[in-house]
């Protein structure tokens, strides 16, 4: 029998009721998916995020952000955000439009002054007088790469190499172009390049000063899938080289594929951690068993299985089991189903995507506002 | 202050100007207008003309020639910051270690070089043509030492003034065209000083020319400092000034 993973859709799962505890026959609400209880759990999660500020990453921290806040008049763009990013980490910063992602990048990139809070960027405190020193150690690729369209690719890079004061600029430019596979386009005017190629030039520019922290603000925004994949593979290569990358995006699959840890922001920080940690925190592990025909007495089959804490029947022949350990529960469930004479069509762990986590957290805000 | 960063800005700006048809047209055509008309006027003055007519005509001509360094630079300089913001290149530039004083000095220098080169070239052509073809009295008045000195000294100083006015408008305005129009208007008052000499309200002399030049130099330096202070990263990036957000000073 093959135990496979499949993507689940949180909302769909929340619609179904009729959960039963494994040890008792009386229905009970599922722990993570019932409305009030899930909200309580989310509130606790948020309180924990606020309380600890951030989870201590393994390596030396290159970004330490504490209670960073930015107000534009009465509007709060970023509210009391705290986190740390370790050296060599690819850190995803997710949130809907207007969540404050770009404002955070701009504050850490010394373009905007925080209203309150503090940060240490690449080992230098974010403070008046430190801007130039911080900018020497970081690189920022804004959403719009902002190239001089009347200049060639190499002229653009020469300009920025001059601003960073890099040694042997021609060698650095050649290496940066090599890294983004653009050496053959070095003499093309930037105005003649496609959006994807411009983004690659922007990445080459960001590599010129060998930054300690690389801020990428929605680097695949507006790119077609092929161009986006090229940018992804570039970020993968940066990770292999040990670069520290701060990636803002609202593409969840991008964050899931590229980032070691992610933070979800919606003005304030909603959660932070590894993708699997976030799933575990928000959702219980679930196995889904599908049989050829409905079981005669499912309570007898699932009621006393090891590792199964609750179960329910959906669509007649589909059973969802809340488990503490899928590797322990799946073989036991398979054996029990076979022993009960069921024709087992599939048994899979329901895997919640980052999208489920994201929607759960962001939708909570929408509901709270509503 | 890093000369390397300033040089990088100058080199980039000059490359950009060379490929910008609008800039080339402005710097090439406008000076010709200011050269041809006054030169023809002086060439048509006959030998027995009275001294008052000669002085008045030479005064007008000198003033017109100094309009070139007052008018061309603000058109270029007014684009320098707001133009970059509009095309999305300002933000990447400001994320590099460059300081605002360096960025502005680089942009000013890049606007200064073509403007002053063109202005001197126009004056040289004008002087040669007048010397070769105008009446002796006219030629003597044009090439009178204090007059020449005033032209040579005031051309770059007026250009620098006009550039800082242009950049100041560029830093504050929300639209390139508005910045260019306001900058051109605001740069003209500097010509008042020149007009006083050109029309002999102040008797032209070498000490006067040098004194006024020093005064203009002081104004230019003060303008650089003032414009640097006006350069507000936050306002340029978000469209609203930092102090309205009750923020701390942005890291510079």
Annotate the secondary structure layout.
The complex is a heterodimer of chains A (370) and B (252).
Chain A: E1 3-8, H1 10-15, E2 20-21, H2 35-52, E3 61-72, E4 75-86, E5 90-94, H3 101-108, E6 116-121, E7 124-125, H4 131-137, E8 138-141, H5 153-164, H6 169-179, H7 195-207, E9 213-217, H8 225-240, E10 244-249, H9 252-258, E11 261-266, E12 268-273, H10 275-282, E13 285-291, H11 298-302, E14 308-314, E15 318-323, H12 326-339, E16 344-352, H13 354-369
Parallel strand pairs in A: 1-16, 5-10, 5-11, 8-9, 9-10
Antiparallel strand pairs in A: 2-14, 3-4, 3-6, 6-7, 11-12, 13-15, 13-16, 14-15
Helix pairs in contact in A: 5-6, 6-7, 7-8, 10-13
Chain B: H1 3-18, H2 21-43, H3 51-80, H4 82-86, H5 90-94, H6 100-133, H7 136-142, H8 145-172, H9 176-187, H10 191-198, H11 206-230, H12 233-238
Describe, in plain words, how this protein is organized in 3D.
The complex is a heterodimer of chains A (about 375) and B (about 250). With about 375 residues, chain A is α/β, with parallel strands linked by helices. Helices cover about 40% and strands about 25% of the residues of chain A. Chain A has two domains: about 100 residues, Alpha-Beta Plaits; about 240 residues, 3-Layer(aba) Sandwich (Rossmann fold). In chain A, the strands form three sheets. Chain A has a six-stranded mixed β-sheet with strand order 1-16-13-15-14-2. In chain A, strands 8-9-10-5-11-12 form a six-stranded mixed β-sheet, with helices on both faces. Chain B is an all-alpha fold and about 250 residues long. Chain B has one domain. Chain B contains twelve helices and no strands. In chain B, helix 2 packs antiparallel against helix 3, helix 2 packs parallel to helix 6 and helix 6 runs antiparallel to helix 11. The interface between A and B is large, with 47 and 40 residues.
